[in-house]
Specification:
549 residues; mainly alpha; Sodium/glucose cotransporter
Length: 549
């Protein structure tokens, strides 16, 4: 009972503080609702960025991947720091110069309205079909496991997932739809502190359990008995082979941290460029510590449960139940619940923003005032949330959560990144090139990963079966060699799309070169230490890889 009381108490405290901090924000205007009045400071931006990213699809999914594959999956965390540095130094100054509220708004100015609308629809489709359901399902898996909901409510595991999905979805919708970005960002910042504290405590208690009360002894035992788990450079059969860091991995990171609306919206809401850059760089520095929260516990769980778990994604909830003192379980569950809400309501708020400004205002009611745009954006958000709640429980059949999320995201991530990069780095590539780039990128990726890959992998495994090969190691190697890794496919399509767009630009250039204008909505004077800090962060990331190589 004390766990439930502390869980409800902390959750309610965050809600009250968020309400008090945002009650004076004018949320009837689009800037007030969608960008928190362009008033966010570095600390709030950093906290919101981290908690928007660091939710259960990361904590549960990536620890599950680490349980199965070891330290090589830390690339998803470590390289994020470099991507944030690139965003702070290159992309954010251009976004704020143009006074953007959404990333597709730039595409409307650079190319045309149809390109903007197409991109917004791609974002929204990815959010409702992939991202929101994964967040809800992974969060429900964690909450159900930590509170043992099936026994508590005398229901089946599947029923407990449905209960948790709808509970998280309803509370998250209230934050995002009725509170606006500032309510989301403030609650994120509070929960970020709790999640960092609680997230570090899990591996600490886990190492103490392994080392008979000593963290250092636990580290020694873990590394000595599981040396294969502590290699930063993944093999070809790992989810992240080392060479993919130089192909599609960095592209995925740049899309996520530099162009993904749910993430970049926090930086777009900065009071000025200095605060935006400091917020991104602070988040990137903290992100370097990410593997302690989303990778190390998975390796500890592998050692503790002797690699016998049937479902790797259950590793983290089971580890929390085993090592966390009962007195802290309610607090940590509340923080984790806050992280789940953060990712869910952040994506939902971004979806409301995209629909309200890029679809409703642009195509449905061009004469709508700001209050009406916000109103219909909220209505769309409610429909989107309900749709995601119905889809979420079906994710149970998708295999590894994190691998599923990253692979399916490629349908829209690389095409969108391609046209934004070409849009900023060229002056005369026309709108038709952007449309072709988006459509061809999406269609070719779907053809590659969901038609060609199953065919070639299935054919290779059938041939292996005919040859009498049955051991898992050999089958994994055959599977990895039968078709290019999805990160390689992303890199190939990225280069191919750029070539296509540049060729169109050469033979059918736009009549006038694009020139970005300064809207003067915020001060775009850069932070004077942005270059030095960015370089230092990149050096630290490289050093970590060398140390664990």
């Amino acid at each position: 009972m004390i766990n439930i009381i502390s869980f409800l108490g902390f959750t309610l405290l965050v809600a009250v503080i968020s309400y008090l901090a945002t009650r004076k924000t004018n949320e009837a205007s689009s800037d007030g609702y969608f960008l928190g009045g362009r008033s966010l400071t570095a600390g709030v931006i950093a906290g919101s960025l981290l908690l928007t990213n660091l939710s259960t699809e990361q904590i549960v999914g990536l620890n599950g991947s680490a349980y199965a594959n070891g330290l090589s999956v830390m690339a998803w965390e470590s390289l994020a720091a470099i991507a944030m540095v690139v965003t702070a130094m290159f992309l954010l100054p251009r976004y704020l110069k143009g006074g953007l509220t959404t990333v597709p708004q730039f595409l409307a100015k650079r190319f045309d309205v149809a390109t903007k609308t197409l991109t917004s629809i791609l974002f929204l489709t990815g959010y409702v079909v992939v991202l929101l359901p994964v967040i809800l399902y992974s969060g429900s898996l964690a909450i159900s496991g930590m509170f043992n909901i099936p026994d508590l409510l005398n229901v089946t595991h599947t029923q407990s997932i449905w209960i948790c999905v709808w509970g998280i979805g309803i509370v998250g919708s209230i934050y995002a739809v009725f509170g606006g970005l500032k309510a989301v960002a403030v609650s994120d910042s509070i929960n970020a502190i709790g999640l960092l504290i609680g997230g570090i405590l899990i591996p600490v208690f886990g190492l103490m359990a392994i080392g008979d009360g000593s963290v250092l002894e636990g580290i020694s035992t873990l590394t000595t008995e599981n040396p294969e788990k502590f290699k930063s450079m993944g093999s070809t059969t790992d989810p992240v082979p080392f060479y993919t860091i130089f192909t599609g991995m960095m592209l995925v990171q740049l899309f996520y941290w530099g162009t993904n609306q749910q993430i970049i919206q926090r930086a777009l809401a900065a009071k000025d460029l200095k605060e935006g850059q400091k917020g991104l760089l602070l988040a990137s520095f903290i992100k370097i510590l990410g593997p302690l929260i989303v990778v190390l516990p998975g390796i500890i769980a592998f050692h503790m449960f002797e690699g016998n778990l049937e479902n790797a994604d259950a590793a983290y909830p089971m580890l929390v139940n085993k090592v966390l003192p009962v007195s802290l379980l309610g607090f940590f569950a509340a923080v984790l619940f806050g992280a789940i809400l953060s990712s869910f309501n952040s994506v939902l708020n971004s979806s409301v923003t995209l629909f309200g400004l890029d679809v409703y205002k642009q195509h449905i009611n061009k004469e709508a005032d700001e209050r009406t745009v916000v109103k219909y954006g909220k209505m769309f958000g409610i429909v989107l949330a309900i749709s995601a709640m119905f889809i979420a429980p079906l994710i149970a059949k998708a295999g590894s959560l994190f691998d599923y999320l990253q692979e399916v995201n490629g349908i829209y991530s690389i095409p969108i990144l391609t046209i934004i990069v070409v849009g900023y780095l060229t002056k005369k590539v026309p709108a038709i090139a952007a449309k072709i780039g988006v459509i061809s990128g999406s269609v070719l990726y779907i053809l590659s990963q969901f038609i060609m890959q199953p065919y070639f992998v299935g054919k290779a495994l059938d041939k292996a079966a005919e040859s009498g090969i049955t051991d898992n190691a050999s089958l994994s190697l055959i599977e990895s060699q039968a078709y290019p890794h999805y990160l390689d496919v992303m890199a190939i399509l990225f280069v191919l799309n750029i070539i296509i767009m540049l060729l169109i630009g050469k033979f059918f250039p736009r009549k006038e070169a694009y020139i970005q204008e300064y809207t003067k909505q915020v001060d775009i004077t850069p932070w004077k230490f942005v270059n030095q800090t960015g370089i230092a962060i990149c050096v630290i990331v490289v050093g970590i890889y060398i140390y664990f190589s």
